[in-house]
Amino acid sequence: MVYSPKILVFLTSIAMFFRNFICNALIMERLLATIWVTNYENNRSCWFTFTWVTIDIIVTVINAYFFTNSSSSNNLLVTVIWQFILSTIGIIEIYIFFKLLKYNNKVYFERKSSALDEQKLTGRYQLSENIRTTKQLIPTLCLHVCVNIIGGISVVLPYFNLVTSPFGILFCVNFLSFVPITYLTFLIELSMILYHPFLKRDFKKFIKNILICKNSKIIKLHRKSKNLKTKTD
């Protein structure tokens, strides 16, 4: 199935799989923040990040290996199973995220009308953080699920012999899956910027500066050409 140099496929697939797996760590982090809402901010540990990143790296390398050597039927089957598992988990995670958002909103408004001692203020702050972060991550998570589903199509078609010729695999599988994945990957990065208040603010400033700089250059060129025309006349 793979026609590119294996080392390039391996490195590319590592980046792709790691990006998709790391979403699971974000889900678990928000789940823990919801369970231990009153003291999560003070009791966070670096071991959570270390553990999940280690698990993600191990799973990523294993999947990248089987994907790179997917010319074998057994190896391709492993990739098909993993893509199915990832897509299923992703759909479940989206459901969990919406439930977390609904629950945090409910608890937040219940506590808003109650007395505000120091502990409850800390809890309300964490609830507000949970709501904000969940809203930011839902679009990104939905796009990740789309990437997993489309990526799964690229291995399901050859495995079930729906596409058999080298041209069919290169065109119908690689082109029709990798092109949408490329655009979706861009939308993932863009959604993380647009749904984050500070990143969105900085992004708007960046775009505004580019447009102002472009317009000022056009005005200067127009004035320069006008002056040259006047001198010529």
UniProtKB/TrEMBL annotation:
InterPro entries in alphabetical order: 7TM_GPCR_serpentine_rcpt_Sre, Serpentine_rcpt_epsilon
Coiled coil: none
Protein name listed in UniProt: Uncharacterized protein
Source domain of life: Eukaryota
GO CC, any one term: membrane
Keywords assigned: Membrane, Transmembrane, Transmembrane helix
Bilayer-spanning residue ranges: 6-27, 47-68, 80-101, 141-161, 167-195
Stated family: Belongs to the nematode receptor-like protein sre family.
GO BP terms: sensory perception of chemical stimulus
PANTHER family: SERPENTINE RECEPTOR CLASS EPSILON-13-RELATED, SERPENTINE RECEPTOR, CLASS T
Pfam families with a match to the protein in the record: Sre
